[in-house]
Design a protein that fits this description.
Elements (H helix, E strand, L loop, with lengths): L36 H4 L6 H12 L8 H7 L4 H14 L2 E7 L5 E7 L25 H14 L12 H16 L4 H9 L9 H11 L19 E3 L6 E3 L7 H11 L1
Antiparallel strand pairs: 1-2, 3-4
Length: about 260
Amino acid sequence: MATPQAIAPPRTRSGSPAAGVQHVNVRHVSGFTVIGNHLAQHAELSLTAIGLAAHIQSLPAGARVGIKCLTARFPESEARIAAALRELEAAGYLHRSRLRLPDGRVVTRTTSYNQPHTTAPAQAPPVAPRREPPPPIPVETRHRAAADLLAGLRRHAPQLRLSAMDISDLAPAVTAWLDRDVRPATVQHALTSDLPTPLRHPAGLLRTRLTTLLPPPLPAAPEQTAPGTVPLQDCDRCERVFRAPEPGHCRDCREAESHRAA
């Protein structure tokens, strides 16, 4: 009788994971949008908000992104899309403001940020007759302040000695803190306190702290209204502007909701 032989299971190829996601990447040469991991892997945003931000960032300037338009485009409800837009506003990826047109109509203007609360570069001033160099634009000024803060960390913690490349990579994350009205001394304390010993990768530690400890944006200051004047509100469903003591739905949306409930 032949002796039974045990057959060993096939070995997993070296470097190939046995489980989890595997990527097959093809380089895009046209028709693509760059999305930062700070958005795609955001720890607090819902999946609806992350997907909605990616969609909005892929649209051309001037595209309509009101709740009605987005509801017509996607299967999510108006309430869910409105909640996702509020998430993106709180996280600094969107800003919505009211704008009065020359004909008296009030519309909502939406600004999308691919980095939380960055600003578009200011337009260059007209050329002066003496050809003097223009002053630095606000983005350059904030970036320089962030870079100076990072370069000076080693004065307070010698182990935080960063290369010029590390400072260039981390400066936008520091700028996000400064844009949220965080004082430089507070940023410095968050980056230099309770450092591990030994510290093997200072740039990696700072990147983690700048991402995970980023404070939320300050809430908008309440609008000043004349005594007895009912403030303007944006309808949570159709974004129409109406007067009411508190946010909610306009009269048409309330009547439509009551008809559906009946």
